[in-house]
Structure formats: C-alpha cells, structure tokens
Amino acid sequence: MRVLGIETSCDETGVAIYDSDRGLLAHALYSQTAIHAQWGGVVPELASRDHVRKTLPLIEEVLGGAGLAGKDLDGIAYTKGPGLVGALLIGAMLGRTLGFAWGIPAIGVHHLEGHLLAPFLEPEPPAFPFLALLVSGGHTELVKVEKLGKYEILGDTLDDAAGEAFDKTAKLLGLGYPGGAALAKLAERGSSGRFHFPRPMTDRPGLDFSFSGLKTFALNTIEANEKDDQTRADIARAFEEAVVETLTIKCRRALRETGLRTLVVAGGVGANTALRHALHVMCKKLEALLYFPRLEFCTDNGAMIAYVGCQRLLAGAQDDLSVEVYPRWPLDRLE
Questions:
Q1: Which residues contribute to the annotated binding site?
Q2: Which residues line the annotated binding site for Fe cation?
Q3: Which of 30, 88, 116, 151 could anchor a disulfide with 13, C-beta 3.0 to 4.6 Å?
Q4: Inter-residue contact 166 to 180 (CB < 8 Å)
Q5: What pLDDT, in 10s, does the model give residues 208-228?
Q6: Are 263 and 230 in contact (CB under 8 A)?
Q7: Binding of substrate: at which residues (predicted)?
Q8: Is the pTM of this model over 0.85?
C-alpha cells in the first residue's frame, strides 16, 4: 500500500509517500521559521497562509521524486490534530479533496501518534510494548505503548512543555527564534556547576512534569547576574542540565515501575545532544534498549504521518467524507 502523508499542524509543511513493502519512497519539508522569527513565535494566521502556498507544490515535488502520479496511490493521511486549527484545516481539506478526486481513501491521523511511531521508519524499529518519552515544544509525556492505537499516558506536564521552557528561557537570554537549539548551542560553551537549577517534581512520587518554575528561576538568575557572554552561557548550561536530568530521572522511574525494557524518545527536544547522551548512559546501566528517530524525523514531518496512515488503513480504519480537525486531542482517547 502506498500512502501520501500531509503534515500541517503548526509551522512546518511536511509531505511524504510511504510504501508498506518498500518503506519511505520520498519526503519533503518546508519550515516557516524565517517567517515567524521576526515575531518571536508562531503566528497562527501566517502559518495557515503559508501552508496554503506550500502544501500542493510539495505534494507535486514528492510525487515527482517517487516517480508516481495520484492514480498510483492507495490512500492519503493528513494530520487531524492536535495543532493550530487553521493550519490543520489546510492539510485536512487538501487531503480530503485529493482523496475524493483520485478515488482513494483519506484518513485523519493523530499528530502525536506520528511522533510515537516515527522510529518505525528506520530499518530496525523497536518492538511493542515500549515506553515512550514524547518531548517537544507543545508536549512532554511518558506513554506506555502497547500496540498501534493502544496508548496509556503515565505522566504529563502540568504547565509548560520542555520545549516551550527551552524557547522561553532562550528568549530571556536574548537568543533568536526558535530558541531551543540556540540555547543548547550556547550551553556547550557554559561551565557546569556555576549555577544550579532545581529538578522539578523529582523529589516526590509520580511521573508528571512541571517546567514553568525553571523559566522563573532562569529569569531571577539572569536578573541577579551580569549579562556577559560567559554568564549567559553558564546559565544556559545550568538550565539545560536541569531539564535533561529531570527527564532522565522520570524515564528511569517509569522504566522501573512498568518493567518495560525499551525506551523510545520522540519529538523535537529528542534531537538535543545532551539529552541523547544522558539517556544512552541511563539505558546502558539499566540494560534497556533505546531508540530515537533520525534527526530529520524528530521534528514535525510528513513521513511519520504517511507511516501511521498506512498502518491504520491496513488495519481497516476509515473516515467518512466530513472534514474534522481537533486542536486539542488527548492521545489516550484515540481509537
């Protein structure tokens, strides 16, 4: 089965074609970072307008790259939620329209399910069941993944997601947008130990997260110290260490409580080098397996949507001709 995947949940337009026999045939991604940078964050209306401009040309590019035409496809998958409602509607309307025109099924896909299963795009994917750390700008969750469509949320963020905390702290440090990667780069020049940030909610039972306090702690630390380059780097280092250690502690706790021996890390923050290193060390000590998507599939992309859509269509899932999107869509309510 060949499935076209369309991702338009936020500020990246992703398109891909996945073949159930041959794997990923082609994919393309357009990022709107330059558009939103001047505003210091994503502007929903601008994101929607740019999806209108970019999605169809990317579909044509991917079809050409795979040497296929619309009549060669067996299905279309588009991101149904969660995300920005206007952006979601662009992908949903286009996916539904092309499916009707080409006479093939079109199905809405959960954005977070795409992230959870992104490692299955690799030649050696993880085996079910596994524990997943879903960590991005909008989500920080620990999820027990039993099989396709069966997910149990073990821990969630009570306020800011880890990626959001990275971006907001980066802004406090005077870094550009998006700030997460810039903060991590600055932290590489920082000295460990000069500042110490708290590890929120690690001194109590449970698997939930809270990162808003780290942002406040960063603000107070910045205001109480000189603004020279080394001090900024040292603060960035301390902040990153606090987030990484907090995530690592919660992953270790979740692996021990569930008895699972496989950890999958998905989402944009999964590209953070310090986090990857810390989790490798932890999993080695626990004799657990660790999986990441390749770096280009950590952030939003069409390949993960095409893969999940393919698996769901093969399992018999289907949608009617209505166009529905869900800006908020808890993962554990997914069929």
A1: 111, 115, 134-138, 167, 180, 272, 300
A2: 111, 115, 300
A3: 30
A4: yes
A5: 999 999 999 999 999 999 989
A6: no
A7: 134-138, 167, 180, 272
A8: yes
